[in-house]
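Hey team,

Filing this mostly as a record. A colleague (T.K.) asked me to run one chain through the structure pipeline before their review meeting, and I want the input and output archived in the tracker in case anyone asks later how it was produced. No errors, nothing strange. Just documentation.

Input sequence:
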Amino acid sequence: MSVLRPFKSNDLFRFNNMWSDLCFTQESPRGRLQGYILGKAEGAQTEWHGHITAVSVAPEYRRLSLARNMCQRLEFASDEIYKGYFVDLYVRCNNALAIKMYEGMGYSVYRRVREYYGNLGVGKGGRDEEDAFDMRKSLSRDVAQRSIRPNGRDMIVSAHDVS
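Output structure:
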């Protein structure tokens, strides 16, 4: 049986120990935390990939390409160290700013995952506000680029279909 308890700072070390080369912080010259990225490697065979679990930049440090730089470092490690086929991440479908940023970094929508973040009901355009886009960027091992598709926004799957 498992136990649900409050998060402790040391828990992060236990998590990061498995993928320490996919988790980074960005610090100012004075040691102030500017942002972080948490990632992991997962999947099997041609679905083996790097995954961006979270990326965050403090408001006063945004628009300085910090998120881009951290993502590029995670992509490099996913490609060179873990030999993944792609890097993926999930982003709310209504987060236009983040989607634009990721598209500018070479990510594209692979599929729409219904109710990925739960179900708060139908929003604008008759779509659930809690849907997510599974965005992917192929890596050098994916020579045929099978991990991406041009019509990903039209590919809709249930959250139960996503592992």
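Quick notes for T.K.: Helices lie at 9-16, 66-80, 96-104. The beta strands are 24-27, 33-42, 49-57, 86-92, 108-114, 132-138, 156-158.
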